[in-house]
Amino acid sequence: HNGADDGGDEGNPVKEEGEKERKFCGINSYNIGRPLMQMIHFIWIYLRMAEELGLQLGDAESPIDLVLPTGAMGNLTGGYMAKQMGIPIGKLCCGVNINDITHRVIDRGEFHHQTIKKTLSEAINIEVVCYRASSSLLYHTKHISAQHTLTNIFSPLYLSPLLQPYNFERILFYLTKGDELLVKEWMETMDKTKKLTLDESWLSQLQQDFQSASITDEEMCNVLREVYESCGYVADPHTAVAIAAAKELGYLQFDDDSNDMPTERRRVAIFATASPCKFEEAVTIALGKEAWDGWK
User: Fold this and answer.
1) What are 155-160's contacts with CB under 8 Å, separation 24+?
2) Contacts of 38 (CB under 8 A, 6+ apart)
3) Per-residue pLDDT of the chain (296 residues; tens, 9 = 90+)
4) How far apart are the C-alpha atoms of 199 and 207, rounded to whole Å?
């Protein structure tokens, strides 16, 4: 399954299969090639903002902050890698929905299991554990007879709890300056207990580079509507999560009594995810059918 968003849905199953040296490849962010390519987005955005704002290229005293919708942390990893390479990036800010493991670990150091919940921004529905088709099912479908329907295949008999935002392991690697033994110890703890708690020292270091906000469906819909009414721009629900996070973190302010553009308080860029035409249900809930029909 190859998704355009940062959500992704492969994790430990792919990792385990990869260790068997099978000849397959995917392009979700468990593949290091994806965040490597996503670094280009951050470099391009920095260059465009520096050009528009008249910033001296490479000036560490004039960094830009970035807000992005976050699921499996692949795009976030690309941004962190770009920062590690010297791009003047200040805070990398994560907008997540109520499946907010990323927010919980950045806010209070708790990378803990929590039951996944349905949302209108489903491509970033990521938690520590979610029922997922097992690796043997994903890559050995030849053993499934023709009588099996999709309902049969994805019944509890074939599912196992495996999903997690797997790029956090990469972020920890860079955070610890490549201490693979410590990261290995942390991830083994995670695998055994479904819980990892960073101590105050590591949490403080994490918060030097990252911020986050957890956004409800109601907040997402409200912001999607505010952006449409203020700017005439129709965002998809995941982009709206990022915009709502930017608002929550103090980057943007909407004036309900005017049609002015949002006011930027600090230098910031917000990542957009996809065309809203892919998410008719969520956009219609936020804007109403008349607005959706008029836009499409």
Assistant:
1) 156/131, 158/133, 158/134, 159/131, 159/132, 159/133, 159/134, 160/131, 160/132, 160/133, 160/134
2) 29, 74, 75, 77, 78, 79
3) 223 345 554 445 455 555 556 666 676 666 777 888 999 999 999 999 999 999 999 999 999 999 999 988 989 999 999 999 999 999 999 999 999 999 999 999 999 988 889 999 988 888 765 333 333 333 333 333 333 333 333 333 333 333 567 899 999 999 999 999 999 999 999 889 989 999 999 999 999 999 999 999 999 999 999 999 999 999 999 999 999 999 999 998 765 544 444 444 589 999 998 899 999 999 999 999 999 988 87
4) 12
- Number of residues in the chain: 296
What is the three-class DSSP state of 296? Answer: coil
